Automatic annotation (TrEMBL):
GO MF terms held by the record: DNA-binding transcription factor activity; transcription cis-regulatory region binding
Keywords from the named record: DNA-binding
Spans through the membrane: none
Name of the protein described by the UniProt record: Transcriptional regulator, TetR family
Domain HTH tetR-type: 20-80
Species classification: Bacteria, Bacillati, Actinomycetota, Actinomycetes, Geodermatophilales
Record-linked PANTHER family: HTH-TYPE TRANSCRIPTIONAL REGULATOR PKSA, HTH-TYPE TRANSCRIPTIONAL REGULATOR RUTR
Ranges annotated as DNA-binding: 43-62
Any Pfam family: TetR_N
InterPro entries in UniProt: Homeodomain-like_sf, HTH-type_TetR-like_transc_reg, HTH_TetR, Tet_transcr_reg_TetR-rel_C_sf
Length: 217
Protein backbone atom coordinates (compact mmCIF):
# COMPACT_ATOMS: atom_id res chain seq x y z
CA UNK A 1 0.00 0.00 0.00
CA UNK A 2 1.31 3.45 -0.91
CA UNK A 3 2.23 5.55 2.10
CA UNK A 4 -0.71 7.72 3.10
CA UNK A 5 -3.23 5.62 1.18
CA UNK A 6 -4.51 3.91 4.32
CA UNK A 7 -4.89 7.24 6.06
CA UNK A 8 -6.85 8.63 3.09
CA UNK A 9 -9.12 5.59 3.07
CA UNK A 10 -9.73 5.88 6.80
CA UNK A 11 -10.63 9.54 6.38
CA UNK A 12 -13.10 8.99 3.55
CA UNK A 13 -15.99 7.72 5.72
CA UNK A 14 -15.53 10.74 7.98
CA UNK A 15 -15.48 13.06 4.98
CA UNK A 16 -18.58 11.39 3.57
CA UNK A 17 -20.33 11.76 6.92
CA UNK A 18 -19.47 15.46 7.08
CA UNK A 19 -20.71 15.98 3.54
CA UNK A 20 -23.95 14.15 4.30
CA UNK A 21 -24.46 16.26 7.41
CA UNK A 22 -23.80 19.46 5.47
CA UNK A 23 -26.30 18.37 2.82
CA UNK A 24 -28.89 17.63 5.50
CA UNK A 25 -28.40 21.07 7.07
CA UNK A 26 -28.65 22.77 3.68
CA UNK A 27 -31.92 21.04 2.84
CA UNK A 28 -33.36 21.77 6.28
CA UNK A 29 -32.35 25.42 5.92
CA UNK A 30 -33.94 25.56 2.46
CA UNK A 31 -37.14 24.20 3.94
CA UNK A 32 -37.11 26.87 6.65
CA UNK A 33 -36.44 29.68 4.17
CA UNK A 34 -39.27 28.57 1.88
CA UNK A 35 -41.66 28.26 4.82
CA UNK A 36 -40.93 31.87 5.79
CA UNK A 37 -40.36 33.54 2.42
CA UNK A 38 -41.79 31.27 -0.27
CA UNK A 39 -39.97 29.94 -3.31
CA UNK A 40 -39.83 33.18 -5.27
CA UNK A 41 -38.07 35.17 -2.55
CA UNK A 42 -35.83 32.37 -1.28
CA UNK A 43 -32.11 33.11 -1.70
CA UNK A 44 -29.23 30.65 -1.65
CA UNK A 45 -27.15 33.03 0.46
CA UNK A 46 -29.81 33.01 3.18
CA UNK A 47 -29.93 29.21 3.07
CA UNK A 48 -26.15 29.10 3.44
CA UNK A 49 -26.23 31.44 6.43
CA UNK A 50 -28.85 29.35 8.24
CA UNK A 51 -27.07 26.10 7.38
CA UNK A 52 -23.75 27.61 8.56
CA UNK A 53 -21.94 26.83 5.32
CA UNK A 54 -20.30 28.98 2.68
CA UNK A 55 -22.59 29.95 -0.18
CA UNK A 56 -20.18 28.42 -2.68
CA UNK A 57 -20.21 25.09 -0.87
CA UNK A 58 -23.93 24.71 -1.55
CA UNK A 59 -23.12 24.42 -5.25
CA UNK A 60 -20.88 21.44 -4.52
CA UNK A 61 -24.00 19.63 -3.36
CA UNK A 62 -26.51 21.18 -5.77
CA UNK A 63 -25.52 22.56 -9.18
CA UNK A 64 -28.16 25.29 -9.17
CA UNK A 65 -30.72 27.08 -7.04
CA UNK A 66 -33.47 25.17 -8.84
CA UNK A 67 -31.85 21.81 -8.08
CA UNK A 68 -31.55 22.73 -4.39
CA UNK A 69 -35.18 23.69 -4.00
CA UNK A 70 -36.32 20.83 -6.22
CA UNK A 71 -34.65 18.35 -3.89
CA UNK A 72 -36.11 20.06 -0.83
CA UNK A 73 -39.57 19.90 -2.39
CA UNK A 74 -39.02 16.28 -3.42
CA UNK A 75 -38.29 15.33 0.19
CA UNK A 76 -41.39 17.13 1.46
CA UNK A 77 -43.64 15.54 -1.16
CA UNK A 78 -42.13 12.09 -0.66
CA UNK A 79 -42.95 12.20 3.04
CA UNK A 80 -46.55 13.27 2.45
CA UNK A 81 -47.02 10.55 -0.14
CA UNK A 82 -45.65 7.96 2.31
CA UNK A 83 -48.16 9.07 4.95
CA UNK A 84 -51.09 8.92 2.53
CA UNK A 85 -50.06 5.55 1.11
CA UNK A 86 -49.71 4.04 4.57
CA UNK A 87 -53.35 4.90 5.32
CA UNK A 88 -54.64 3.82 1.92
CA UNK A 89 -52.88 0.46 2.22
CA UNK A 90 -54.33 -0.44 5.63
CA UNK A 91 -56.03 -3.84 5.75
CA UNK A 92 -59.52 -4.63 6.98
CA UNK A 93 -61.15 -1.32 6.10
CA UNK A 94 -63.39 -0.26 3.25
CA UNK A 95 -62.06 1.79 0.37
CA UNK A 96 -64.26 4.75 1.32
CA UNK A 97 -63.03 4.70 4.92
CA UNK A 98 -59.41 4.66 3.84
CA UNK A 99 -59.98 7.47 1.35
CA UNK A 100 -61.70 9.58 4.01
CA UNK A 101 -58.95 9.05 6.57
CA UNK A 102 -56.17 9.68 4.05
CA UNK A 103 -57.77 12.94 2.94
CA UNK A 104 -58.42 14.07 6.52
CA UNK A 105 -54.82 13.34 7.48
CA UNK A 106 -53.38 15.13 4.46
CA UNK A 107 -55.56 18.20 5.07
CA UNK A 108 -54.63 18.35 8.76
CA UNK A 109 -50.91 18.08 7.99
CA UNK A 110 -51.17 20.68 5.24
CA UNK A 111 -52.98 23.17 7.46
CA UNK A 112 -50.45 22.62 10.22
CA UNK A 113 -47.66 23.27 7.72
CA UNK A 114 -48.50 26.95 7.37
CA UNK A 115 -46.17 28.88 5.08
CA UNK A 116 -44.38 25.79 3.79
CA UNK A 117 -47.67 24.16 2.79
CA UNK A 118 -48.83 27.34 1.08
CA UNK A 119 -45.59 27.56 -0.90
CA UNK A 120 -45.66 23.88 -1.87
CA UNK A 121 -49.34 23.75 -2.84
CA UNK A 122 -50.13 27.24 -4.13
CA UNK A 123 -47.11 29.31 -5.04
CA UNK A 124 -45.90 29.59 -8.67
CA UNK A 125 -42.53 27.93 -9.18
CA UNK A 126 -39.65 27.63 -11.58
CA UNK A 127 -40.64 25.00 -14.20
CA UNK A 128 -37.98 22.55 -12.99
CA UNK A 129 -39.23 22.81 -9.42
CA UNK A 130 -42.86 22.68 -10.49
CA UNK A 131 -42.22 19.36 -12.23
CA UNK A 132 -41.52 17.85 -8.81
CA UNK A 133 -44.91 19.10 -7.63
CA UNK A 134 -46.62 17.66 -10.72
CA UNK A 135 -44.92 14.30 -10.16
CA UNK A 136 -46.08 14.31 -6.54
CA UNK A 137 -49.66 15.03 -7.56
CA UNK A 138 -49.49 12.15 -10.03
CA UNK A 139 -48.21 9.86 -7.28
CA UNK A 140 -51.07 10.84 -4.98
CA UNK A 141 -53.63 10.36 -7.76
CA UNK A 142 -52.25 6.89 -8.52
CA UNK A 143 -52.46 5.92 -4.85
CA UNK A 144 -56.13 6.91 -4.63
CA UNK A 145 -56.88 5.25 -7.97
CA UNK A 146 -55.53 1.93 -6.64
CA UNK A 147 -57.87 2.06 -3.66
CA UNK A 148 -60.84 2.90 -5.88
CA UNK A 149 -60.00 -0.10 -8.07
CA UNK A 150 -59.90 -2.28 -4.95
CA UNK A 151 -63.28 -0.92 -3.87
CA UNK A 152 -64.81 -1.68 -7.27
CA UNK A 153 -63.36 -5.20 -7.28
CA UNK A 154 -64.74 -5.82 -3.77
CA UNK A 155 -68.20 -4.60 -4.75
CA UNK A 156 -67.99 -1.64 -2.35
CA UNK A 157 -67.96 0.99 -5.09
CA UNK A 158 -69.91 1.30 -8.30
CA UNK A 159 -68.46 1.33 -11.78
CA UNK A 160 -66.32 4.43 -12.35
CA UNK A 161 -63.00 5.45 -13.85
CA UNK A 162 -60.49 5.09 -10.97
CA UNK A 163 -57.81 7.20 -12.62
CA UNK A 164 -60.09 10.15 -13.28
CA UNK A 165 -61.68 10.03 -9.84
CA UNK A 166 -58.34 9.53 -8.12
CA UNK A 167 -57.00 12.64 -9.82
CA UNK A 168 -60.21 14.52 -8.99
CA UNK A 169 -59.86 13.65 -5.30
CA UNK A 170 -56.33 15.04 -5.24
CA UNK A 171 -57.47 18.19 -7.01
CA UNK A 172 -60.30 18.58 -4.51
CA UNK A 173 -58.24 18.39 -1.34
CA UNK A 174 -55.38 20.48 -2.70
CA UNK A 175 -57.77 23.21 -3.81
CA UNK A 176 -59.79 22.87 -0.62
CA UNK A 177 -56.90 23.88 1.63
CA UNK A 178 -55.91 26.98 -0.36
CA UNK A 179 -58.28 29.49 1.26
CA UNK A 180 -57.68 28.26 4.84
CA UNK A 181 -53.91 28.37 4.27
CA UNK A 182 -54.16 31.91 2.93
CA UNK A 183 -55.90 32.91 6.17
CA UNK A 184 -53.36 31.13 8.40
CA UNK A 185 -52.76 30.35 11.17
CA UNK A 186 -55.50 27.72 11.21
CA UNK A 187 -56.64 26.63 14.66
CA UNK A 188 -57.49 23.05 15.60
CA UNK A 189 -61.26 23.48 15.34
CA UNK A 190 -60.99 24.95 11.86
CA UNK A 191 -58.58 22.20 10.77
CA UNK A 192 -61.07 19.57 11.90
CA UNK A 193 -63.95 21.31 10.13
CA UNK A 194 -62.06 21.70 6.86
CA UNK A 195 -60.79 18.13 7.02
CA UNK A 196 -64.27 16.69 7.61
CA UNK A 197 -65.84 18.68 4.79
CA UNK A 198 -63.19 17.83 2.21
CA UNK A 199 -63.09 14.16 3.25
CA UNK A 200 -66.89 13.88 2.98
CA UNK A 201 -66.77 15.47 -0.46
CA UNK A 202 -64.09 13.03 -1.63
CA UNK A 203 -65.90 10.01 -0.19
CA UNK A 204 -69.14 11.06 -1.88
CA UNK A 205 -67.23 11.38 -5.14
CA UNK A 206 -66.59 7.63 -5.16
CA UNK A 207 -69.63 6.27 -3.28
CA UNK A 208 -72.31 8.40 -4.95
CA UNK A 209 -73.95 7.85 -8.29
CA UNK A 210 -71.47 6.32 -10.71
CA UNK A 211 -71.00 7.78 -14.15
CA UNK A 212 -72.08 5.57 -17.02
CA UNK A 213 -68.95 5.07 -19.04
CA UNK A 214 -69.26 5.74 -22.70
CA UNK A 215 -72.67 7.40 -22.37
CA UNK A 216 -73.42 10.64 -24.15
CA UNK A 217 -76.09 13.28 -23.96
Amino acid sequence: MVEGEGQALSRSPRVAARQAEARRRILEAARLVVSEQGFAAAQVAVVASIADVATGSIYRHFPSKASLFSEMLRQVCRRELEVVRAILEEDGRSAAERIGDAVTTFVDRALRGGGLSYAVIVEPMDPDIDQVRLDARAGLAAAFARVIKEGIAAGELGDQDPDIRGAAIVGAFLEGVVAPLAARPVDAARRDEVGREIAAFCQNAVTGAAATRGSGT
